[in-house]
Amino acid sequence: MEEPRDSARTKEVSPVIATVDPATGRTVKTFEELGAAEIEDKIARSYERAKSYRHTTFAERARWLNAAADLLDAEVDEVAAMMTTEMGKTLASARAEVAKSANGIRFYAEHAESFLADEPADAAKVGAELAYAAYQPLGVVLAVMPWNYPLWQAVRFAAPALMAGNTGLLKHASNVPQSALYLEDVLRRAGFPDGCFTTLLISSKQVEPVLRDPRVAAATLTGSEPAGRAVAAVCGDEVKHTVLELGGSDPFLVLPSADIGRAAEVAVTARVQNNGQSCIAAKRFIVHTDVYDAFAERFVARMRELTVGDPFDAGTQVGPLATEQGRAEVEELVADAVAAGATVLCGGKPLSGPGWFYPPTVITDITPAMRIHQEELFGPVASLYRAGSLDEAIELANATAFGLGASAWTSDAGERARLIAELEAGQVFINGMTASYPELPFGGVKRSGTGRELAAHGIREFCNVKTVWVGA
């Protein structure tokens, strides 16, 4: 089974679980994989805890979750530095991720009870004295999580799953073990009983036996399409529920009525956020021909000005890619495009020296024959397209196997309505950058996955929707 990594899509080349600083290539700390007996013990404790934990009250769960959020706030400097060391995000980005995680935790602590309240039906119409739908926990849920948002990705599973009354097992990416262990520790210190949330330090090859264990009721994965297929295949064979958030090749459409200056400025952030390693980062910039030159000039100039360097430096805007293989994949896709006739407007070559740095890059003259046209590129590389009309822009945007998010820029009400209706994506943002919020459901269509995270939809994914009918 492939190592998941929110669309970074590298295969696990070694079973070693380790923190390797991507800014230097230096191995900071290694960890031993769990043996069979240790895995069995952790699954057994999670399963036994689920039997009693499901009977705790929403108030108890919320109290523990709020305590965890308070700990994150108090420990933000330590946690941010850990994440920056493990996967190379800038320190400012890491601090923001800690704050976002605490916010997401508090959101579910506050709203879970109302999200999971019994839903009354028309009892008389079904010949009952009382009829309603009840939301009840599934039991043990396995989460297979990526490295690009080491805390937030895991929290947006853990908070709703725990508030719903489930227990959780976390198989995190093998290059962020300290982040994985920290989340288990902070939830324990917040008051959650032993076995409620457990980190499994295992390699990808050990995931399938855990999935097939009858004590594991469901699974959620954020990662590559191959990893999602593998998990879905096993869970399908075992008839277990899955939530999959997979790749994205998100379009960013700019139409003539848009504020071109604002669109170009946001486009830069949308592409290089998290060093370009985000499933919902804008990757394909589709610009109407009437404003193409004006947008391209601003966009390329701003991308060229970005500061690449030490992620701990306050002046750095783009840090290293998280893995050496991840950078190699970016190089391969850019080289393939150039060899087939694409034009590089800025960047395009890996930076020399230690660490896995790649400069902000813009490529144009892209054709369907190029790999970059169809494959997700997980790094600070933007593909720039010219569209002759709104129809062509929408057609280009939808010409991908993925359908995670889309951003479109227009001040025309008619164009807005068409974009919302016709863009094939799990979320469409008009005049703004695609993002995830606890208040909004998150997920994709086509090969970007199934199911939803966040909002009420996300917590209900981890529940049995039980129909209750009571006769006179």
TrEMBL record:
The alphabetized UniProt keywords are: NADP, Oxidoreductase
Q: Which SUPFAM superfamilies match?
A: ALDH-like
| Signal sequence range | none
Keyword Phosphoprotein among record annotations: no
**Where does the Aldehyde dehydrogenase domain start and stop, copy by copy?**
16-468
Which Gene Ontology molecular function entries are recorded, alphabetically?
aldehyde dehydrogenase [NAD(P)+] activity; succinate-semialdehyde dehydrogenase (NAD+) activity
Q: Which InterPro entries match?
A: Ald_DH/histidinol_DH, Ald_DH_C, Ald_DH_CS_CYS, Ald_DH_N, Aldehyde_DH_dom, ALDH_GabD1-like, GABD/Sad-like
Concerning its family, UniProt says: Belongs to the aldehyde dehydrogenase family.
Name under which the protein is recorded: NADP-dependent succinic semialdehyde dehydrogenase
Please tell me the species this chain comes from. Amycolatopsis acidicola
Upper classification of the source organism reads: Bacteria, Bacillati, Actinomycetota, Actinomycetes, Pseudonocardiales
